[in-house]
Amino acid sequence: MKTLTLSEKELPFDLDLTFSCGQIFGWKKSGNIWKGVHNGRIITIRQDNRTIRYSGCDKKVLYHFLGLKDNIPEIYQSICTHIAKFTHEKQDLFFLERFLLSKGIRILRQDPWECLFSFICSSNSNVRTIGKRIGLLMENYGTCCSIGENLFPEPLAMGAIDEESLRKCLTGYRAPYLMGTAEYIITHPDFFLKISSLSYPDAKKELMILPGVGPKVADCVLLFGFERMEAVPVDIRIRKIITAQYQDIIPGEKGTKTLSYDTIADFCRSYFGPYAGYAQQYLFATRDVRQELSV
DNA sequence: ATCCAGGTACCCA
DNA sequence: TGGGTACATGGA
């Protein structure tokens, strides 16, 4: 195990919250140690206050993966500045409360394929089931590292599976999505490079070419896999929160009609600013989620 | 049992 | 372009 100590500008950081808030799947905690796959390697991480112990990668990779370069106080300031500009009020107490509950979260920098694979698996399921599903897929089709330690399935492996056996891994109707997307990645080897080079709106359109990738999954992949902090995944929970808390201040949206995906996401970008993705994650990941997951 | 879950594809007006 | 609906399945 290697060790590093978090400096003042790398705080706050909460490993548990970061790994259990629904942005990454397939990681397991035993004792105090989190273990999982990042970029084709098995990594273990534990946190004791400001001490991080880790294995499986070098310090540079870990820093990048964990988003430790992000300056959280600056990000929070940026968000507050944009809120104040939007509302002409001093502060948003609702958001402040949510932020204080989950400020230790970092937006991870996941491997694009691992992230894409995960969020195709995520549709219309709860966080716990998604984790199980991805665990099964890794056990059955992931490259074996050592006994009991598998990586994510490679696109080539996914393309070669018959749908019937894939459906046995709790994938259900998502099975053809996984296979179709794998096939597309195989036949377009520069796909992720292309996504990196495109603007946020164009990258999102391009991702949505893939089967099983709609606006929500595309935003998750852009936020968690491509560092696009302006991406705002709108799921049921975010929809409920924005509707209940902010619908009245969205221009032209006062009333009872349901808000469209883009209305919610665009509002978040204009309300929270360029770090809307972080703001979204603070709203999404409250303490109840943490309790729900910490079994 | 019934409803819900980090949705998407497809159909129809 | 926008609004229903089917889809699989574990959890609560």
From TrEMBL:
Query: What would be one Pfam family of this protein?
Result: HhH-GPD
Task: Write down the EC number.
Answer: 4.2.99.18
| Keywords of the record | DNA damage, DNA repair, Glycosidase, Hydrolase, Lyase, Multifunctional enzyme
Look up keyword Hydrolase and say if it applies.
Answer: yes
Gene Ontology molecular function: class I DNA-(apurinic or apyrimidinic site) endonuclease activity; damaged DNA binding; oxidized purine nucleobase lesion DNA N-glycosylase activity
Query: Looking at the record's lineage, which domain of life comes first?
Result: Archaea
Q: Which reaction does it catalyse?
A: 2'-deoxyribonucleotide-(2'-deoxyribose 5'-phosphate)-2'-deoxyribonucleotide-DNA = a 3'-end 2'-deoxyribonucleotide-(2,3-dehydro-2,3-deoxyribose 5'-phosphate)-DNA + a 5'-end 5'-phospho-2'-deoxyribonucleoside-DNA + H(+)
Listed under GO biological process in this entry are:
base-excision repair; nucleotide-excision repair
Stretches assigned to the HhH-GPD domain:
121-288
- InterPro entries, per this entry? DNA_glycosylase, HhH-GPD_domain, HhH_base_excis_C, OGG_N, Oxidative_DNA_repair_enzyme
Q: Which family does it belong to?
A: Belongs to the type-1 OGG1 family.
What this protein is called in its record is DNA-(apurinic or apyrimidinic site) lyase
